[in-house]
Amino acid sequence: MDISLVQHEAEINSSTRKGFGQRHLFATLGFLGLATVYMMRVNLSVAIVDMVNSTRTLEENGTEGTCPFPDGPAGETKQVHGEFNWDGPTQGLVLGCFFWGYMSTQIPAGILAEKHGGKLLFGGGIFLTSIFTLITPMAVRISLKFFIAVRVLTGMAEGVTLPAMHSLMASWIPCNERSTLGSFIMAGMQFGTVVALPLSGLLCEVNIDNGWPLVFYIFGLSGLIWFGFWHTKITDSPENHPAISNDEKEYILDHLGMQTRTKGGTPWYAIFTSLPFWAIFVAHCGNNWGFYTLLTELPTYMKSVLHFDIKSNGFLSALPYLMMWIVANVSSWIADYYRHNRETSVTTIRKTCNSVGTFVPGLALICAVYTGCNAVSTVIFLTIAVGSNGATYSGFQVNHIDIAPNYAGILMGLTNCFANICGFLAPYVVGLITTDEGSIEQWQLVFFISAGIYFVSNTFFLVFSSAEDQNWNRIVETHSTSRPRSFGSIETTSKVE
Question: What would the pLDDT profile of 150-195 be if each residue is shown by its tens digit?
Fold first, then answer.
């Protein structure tokens, strides 16, 4: 190859990587989109504490198996004047029904995103989620059944977002920036949680319409505002973006690790007989059990066991997710550093990050079991459990794009569909176990189950996962270009008819 051409390409790569380009704008709006949609997902976890009518008698030293209240004389009755009389299983149903709809659109969304692009699917999903969030207060006051129906529809609308985003990332993010930009985008979910939990607690205390409806109005409106920016600034790929520079477009296309598709169908048999795919599948399911157990139930645990008020509840429940957001970004920088400067294999990086993100949370949950009523120690270990889970964003969470960038949206749809069974199963199981919400022993069982699932799922991932491009991903081009496309460490030359 001509030395001058190599030098020219190196100069383009260097200058393009340093500047702020359209791929960075895409990453920023993707980050904000996932943050917004997660704000609309988790707000109910705090709002339900204020929505439900509950009464509890304060005991000076706590009854057997429960923690004492931090203040108030013994025998005093503490009451939350919520509008709805829902028992534990009903609350579990309300928190979990979102995932009935969420999992139903995962696979169709992956297929649609791969065939028609992810921009409209991602943006439209968040737009509809915002509309359903805005009508939630009206729905819950009409009837429980109507409320559940709206939550299911909210889940269906939000369910398209991750498969669509994975398809878009495969088109926009170069292989050598995948850990950093990919983790940055995905960490938007934790940033949204960090914002939503304390803000929901504050809004619930506002003396307007009982407070809690404001949680849905504010977050729903934010989603509509975000949609306006997304719709006007983003395209399905850099190839058809009107404002992208030629240098950045060339840089992205030369480092995607994917090829133009033929009209052939999805290699379903190869996918379902691929051990690296099943490693991601198992890791995703195990991670979601622990993650959603804490995401949906942590505010309830803070209130019923540790007896924090709703404002403190919101801030303390957000603390672990702030740590998770920090860990997700720091681990992505470390992952890319070892990939570029230490020549560590991507497979090793994915396994290491995933182990940090699952084994450490499992151990922290076991430690939390033995802290009893020590609120400070419990919050510290729960923060470690949730925070360290952020390392999985440089683990299995981006592994779909490693093994098959051409089918990244479909793979995410498949794993996220079944993994989100845990989204409604975990809160329901917690509701069955915690018949007395204040019982320490019952919550200890919840933590033990989550820790065990973390350990088993990551062990499977360690044995069978890979970050190597899979044979069934390699599609021979039938149209025009002579430019080689990179498949990680493999280069293929396009076939021209």
Answer: 999 999 999 999 889 988 888 888 877 877 888 789 888 888 988 8
H helices of 135-177, in order, are 136-142, 144-158, 161-172
Phi and psi at 474, nearest 5°, equal -80, 100
Reduced to 3 DSSP states, what percent helix, strand and coil does the chain have, rounded to the nearest 5?
75, 5, 25
CA–CA separation, 469 and 399 (whole Å): 10
pTM score > 0.90 for this model?
no
Strands 77-80 and 485-487: unpaired
**Other residues' Cβ atoms within 10 Å of the Cβ of residue 153:** 18
Give me the residues paired with residue 79 across strands: 55
User: In the Cβ-directed half-sphere of 299, how many Cα atoms lie within 13 Å?
Assistant: 31
Q: Mean of the pLDDT values across residues 366-383?
A: 84
Give the H/E segment covering residue 492: strand 490-492
Instruction: Name 150's Cβ contacts closer than 8 Å, sequence gap at least 6.
Output: 132, 135, 136, 139
Annotate 365-410 with DSSP letters as a single string: HHHHHTTTT-HHHHHHHHHHHHHHGGGGGGTGGGHHHHH-GGGHHH
Least Cα distance to 401 among 470, 352, 338 occurs for: 470
Residue 338 carries which side chain, given as an amino acid letter?
Y
* Cα–Cα dist 48/26, whole Å: 34
- The maximal CA–CA distance of the chain, rounded, in angstroms, is 86
